[in-house]
């Protein structure tokens, strides 16, 4: 069934990586012998059901990304590198406007999540063909508290229903485009894409992925990433 669908991937890599505190943007820092972003794109590039990859980078880094990542690592499925916006949501919207006009299914993935496994990409494409919207994630391991501005605990959430959502998040293209347009119309800014579809009142499926599908966010994630990579070899 997947083969009949045109599948585009949008890699969001236009953030500034402020929490990493590095003069080099975190996507271009090495884990093992390759930049974070090269690890991420390689997984999609190798995946036979992916037809095109659109990379969204910071406007100042388009040329750098092409030279140091796309061309250097021979990532031939990347058809376009486009400039992102100030917020992640804006960057994804720029990506949505750049995909092939006959795109059926769109997979959204963070450039900063280099340990995504092909298995979950394939499962999420299948699930999106059936259900139109799907995110991957993991049940939370910690007990989650709601804390106010004075650092007082207000209440404790029921962990049995809490999941941490990751990417890939995979959608029927027209549905996600509609969800983004509605968010723009309403002035709504979300921190992922599934929430935009939730706002339309549409069902979004959750697929179990793995705890090692981490997002490289703060400096300690780099040595956790080195350990994940060593463990995979
Ligand atoms: N305007 C933005 C902001 C974020 N992202 C991307 O969205 C992913 C998840 O965002 P996050 O980890 O928060 O990255 P940054 O925004 O770069 O991090 P920070 O908040 O520390 O600056 C990253 O791959 C990032 O490059 C993006 O494409 N466009
Ligand atoms: C989309 C996301 O990866 C889901 O966990 C995440 O929300 C994006 O990162 P941010 O740190 O919230 O910008």
UniProtKB/TrEMBL annotation:
InterPro entries: IspD, IspD/TarI, IspD/TarI_cytidylyltransf_bact, ISPD_synthase_CS
Enzyme class label: transferase
Any matching Pfam family: IspD
Pathway named in the protein's UniProt entry: Isoprenoid biosynthesis; isopentenyl diphosphate biosynthesis via DXP pathway; isopentenyl diphosphate from 1-deoxy-D-xylulose 5-phosphate: step 2/6
Superkingdom of this protein's organism: Bacteria
Site feature location: Transition state stabilizer: 19, 26
Site keyed Positions MEP for the nucleophilic attack: positions: 159, 215
Catalytic function, reaction form: 2-C-methyl-D-erythritol 4-phosphate + CTP + H(+) = 4-CDP-2-C-methyl-D-erythritol + diphosphate
Enzyme Commission number(s) of this protein: 2.7.7.60
Key words, A-Z: Isoprene biosynthesis, Nucleotidyltransferase, Transferase
Family: Belongs to the IspD/TarI cytidylyltransferase family. IspD subfamily.
PANTHER family the UniProt entry points to: 2-C-METHYL-D-ERYTHRITOL 4-PHOSPHATE CYTIDYLYLTRANSFERASE, CHLOROPLASTIC (PTHR32125:SF4)
Identification of the protein by name: 2-C-methyl-D-erythritol 4-phosphate cytidylyltransferase
């Amino acid at each position: 069934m997947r083969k009949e669908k045109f599948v585009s991937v949008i890699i969001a890599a236009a953030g500034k990586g402020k929490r990493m505190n590095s003069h080099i943007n975190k996507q271009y820092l090495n884990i093992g012998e390759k930049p974070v972003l090269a690890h991420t794109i390689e997984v999609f590039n190798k995946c036979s059901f992916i037809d095109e990859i659109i990379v969204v980078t910071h406007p100042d880094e388009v040329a750098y990304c092409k030279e140091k990542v796309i061309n250097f690592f021979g990532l031939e499925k990347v058809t376009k590198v486009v400039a992102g916006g100030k917020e992640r949501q804006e960057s994804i919207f720029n990506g949505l406007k750049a995909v092939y006009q006959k795109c059926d299914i769109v997979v959204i993935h963070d450039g900063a999540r280099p340990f995504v496994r092909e298995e979950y990409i394939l499962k999420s494409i299948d699930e999106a063909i059936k259900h139109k919207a799907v995110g991957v994630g993991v049940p939370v391991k910690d007990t989650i508290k709601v804390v106010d501005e004075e650092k007082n605990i207000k209440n404790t959430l029921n962990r049995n229903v809490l999941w941490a959502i990751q990417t890939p998040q995979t959608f029927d293209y027209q549905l996600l485009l509609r969800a983004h347009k509605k968010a723009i119309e309403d002035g709504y800014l979300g921190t992922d894409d599934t929430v935009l579809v939730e706002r339309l009142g549409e069902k979004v499926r959750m697929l179990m992925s793995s705890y090692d599908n981490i997002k490289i966010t703060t400096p300690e994630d780099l040595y956790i990433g080195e350990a994940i990579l060593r463990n995979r070899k």
